[in-house]
Amino acid sequence: MDTSILGIDVSARKLDLCWSNTESSEAATIAYTREALTEYLAHSNKHITPTSCVVGLESTGDYHISAARFFLKRGFTVRLINPIVTKYYTRLTIRGAKTDQKDAALICKLVKDGQGAVISWTDVADRDKELLRLARHLTKASAQLKVRLQSTKRKELTQMTKIELSVERLVKRISKVSDMCVAAATTDRSVEEELIDTIPGFGVQLSATVYHELGDIERFKNAKSLVAYAGLDPRIKQGGSKLNTTGRLTKRGSPMLRHALYVAANVARRFDPELNSYYTKKREEGRRHAEVLCIIARKLLYRVNAVLRERRPYVAA
């Protein structure tokens, strides 16, 4: 049977659908509810089944998760498209027109061309991943409140004592909840988390964050694709005969993953002899602190790739 594609553009309240095979295509717009999706599959003129159709979705924060779960529960193969890819192809069109229906058709075409990563149930129902992300946001909020509170105190404003004490209690409460999230997410550690933890620079929280943000290591072809997924690869620009391959980072993928690797790099450059020597050398050459840490973060990601694929703890060379 000829495999068809169902491309879906997701928004908060509606779904724009584009079904296509080698002979025809069909567009539709429905409400973003489980009932509407069930009715669409039941009454569509097309034969949309798990064995005959692949579903394509654009990664849109958390909006796409309910739709992905709906189709995964029913046994469909679901591919998730990076929004950077859809934006790139939209810019290539003559008019650069962008509508929800055009986006659905583009997603359909991209999936047909083999774009998008196949996702599983764990990719859309990872409790520990969400807890670690929540802990990170709470930590940032707590830090911002502390800065704002110190700024307020320096101004020595009148009748502010009670409010300042309330903010201090709030900061402590936020920090406590953040610690609770981390504890809940790292209680039952996986083998993968323990393997990552053998690499200098990683601890319990960082190894858990990296593992959950990466997912299954086998979905990456090699270490370079892993680095690209983390957004730690440099932008490449060429003008005439000049080729610059050391530009700014692309910053694709998960910012949580990049942050965890950056923090791990800052720890590793102090306690790992090889990386400490590398850091010192590059700093003496005039490279900036943040720039060298990004390079070390890439090196750590290569180590993560090795220990996860070979299923053995890290051993220094």
From TrEMBL:
It comes from the Bacteria. It holds the Pfam family Transposase_20. GO terms for molecular function: DNA binding; transposase activity. GO terms for biological process: DNA transposition. Residues 6-151 form the Transposase IS110-like N-terminal domain. Residues 194-279 form the Transposase IS116/IS110/IS902 C-terminal domain. InterPro entries: Transp_IS110-like_N (IPR002525), Transpos_IS110 (IPR047650), Transposase_20 (IPR003346). This is Uncharacterized protein. It comes from Candidatus Andersenbacteria bacterium CG10_big_fil_rev_8_21_14_0_10_54_11.
